[in-house]
Amino acid sequence: MAGKKVLIVYAHQEPKSLNxxxxxxxxxxxxxxxxxxxxxxxxxxxFEPRATRxxxxxxxxxxxxxxxxxxxxxxxxxxxxSEDLIEEQRKVxxxxxxxxxxxxxxxxxxxxxxxxxxxxxVQGFAHDFPKCYDSGLxxxxxxxxxxxxxxxxxxxxxRGPSGNIRYLLWPMQHGILHFCGFSVLSPQICFGPxxxxxxxxxxxxxxxxxxxxxxxxxxxxxxxxxxYFGNI
Length: 232
Ligand SMILES: Cc1cc2nc3c(=O)[nH]c(=O)nc-3n(C[C@H](O)[C@H](O)[C@H](O)COP(=O)(O)OP(=O)(O)OC[C@H]3O[C@@H](n4cnc5c(N)ncnc54)[C@H](O)[C@@H]3O)c2cc1C
Prior knowledge:
Blueprint: E1 5-10, H1 18-32, E2 36-41, H2 42-45, H3 68-77, H4 83-94, E3 97-103, H5 111-120, E4 142-148, H6 165-178, E5 183-184, E6 188-190, H7 198-213, H8 225-229
Parallel strand pairs: 1-2, 1-3, 3-4, 4-5, 4-6
Helix pairs in contact: 1-7
């Protein structure tokens, strides 16, 4: 929809990957709609995933005992986070929708993306107890996980060896995104792109682009335990 702002946080090393194609097609489709699209290409940016003292500029709140959560929170409040983190927070603040594009690594996200979550979504900026979940500081924003897997859909079915794919979405969608107040749209999952035909891969890309054409009409999921572990 024209005027909407979208941030794509993209975590893949290879532009020719399916993730790379998904990202490129997302940018093209959303720009066609008149959206402003920003991409944080984490590997290209050489985003530093480790949460360390280097993220805080100047004096520490407690130099005798380094507590990352507290230090990042105080640094955010005092404008003393490092420039790269302030820039990522600015992008999140402006966005109506944040799309995370990544390959599934060990039932989760690649370390570089997890590092982005650890360091960007700090207390004071994204949450501030009791301002979490529906009152999280990023409420009124949408988030969507778009990812690829190695396993096929059957493996991630209720009785498959990996279990229902929704089980592993709980920490990412609920523990991170919903905790920070995001309304979560249904995930976009491309199962096993390495092992399917070229035709099937093209279908994965076209169905994603088709979905993007009406993405602004979508209702967020009901991000409650039952969505993940029950029958809704
Ligand atoms: C450390 C690690 C942990 C992992 N853990 C898990 C796990 O827990 N669970 C799990 O299921 N998997 C796991 N995997 C596998 C991983 O999720 C998959 O390898 C990955 O999701 C595949 O996506 P890709 O974009 O990297 O594929 P790629 O191999 O880059 O792309 C797949 C195919 O798509 C083709 N392609 C690209 N663009 C297009 C286009 N425009 N049109 C048609 N074809 C195109 C490419 O040429 C390629 O042939 C893990 C992998 C690693 C490295």
